[in-house]
Amino acid sequence: MGEAGERVRALLAAHLPGYQVESLTRLGAGLDNVAYDVNGDLIVRFGTGANADREARLLTTVGNLSPLPVPVPRFTDAGCLAYPKLPGVPLLDAAGVDGVPVAAALGGLLAALHAAPIERMAKLVETDDLPVDEWRREARETYASVSANVPSAYRRRVEAFLETPAPEDPRTLAFSHNDLGIEHVLVDPLTGEITGVIDWSDAAIVDPAYDFGLIHRDLGPVALDAALTAYGTAPEGLRVRALFYARCSVFEDLAYGLETSRERYVVKSLVALEWLFA
User: pTM for the complete prediction?
Assistant: First the structure.
């Protein structure tokens, strides 16, 4: 690992005295950070100082709000953020797990997040309030790029949807994960129990319907019902907009799967067309 490995070891010695480093694996680098797996139970990530500190504050706050496990930071230091590696596998990779009880638990999570005071959370995250009609416009563009991969049986209904007026914009916004796809939900593959919700980098003040839309997109209508039941009283129009976001976002996931050769994204997107455009 060279210099980077020595830096990781030095930081761990300073912040977690007595912690023994037995294995150190570079996980890869993104546009803004590089991460390391330490001993299979700790993630140490380097990025910009301001972003790391802000994310640490966000994750600490979310950890106090969430009824489900989240990666609460162990320490930060000049652009370094360290947090536990949660157990489990992404639901995307957990074949055979029943998504309905998972969705119910996610509905409870969203109830807790959406109840957080906007004024408090706005100090930690941005507001993402793209007009609903812009979602439709972007979905049209994305669909045009992937339409050749959409089975012909669905194309007429997809194209009719993309020409239908969008729902009204939400009257209120809420703090939410803002990317609650099944790739970010960790589960025990044997029991189906949620072991963690990860990747809070897109968390924002948003339409509370959006994450419900991703639940519907990835897990289906029965799962959406379970999530909404667990959520409790939903704002007016939330279900309608959730269905809308589910339909728009499926093309984004399909495009991502095709561009990156990630077959699981392609398969799940094509499967979802059955309940999104039946």
Answer: 0.92
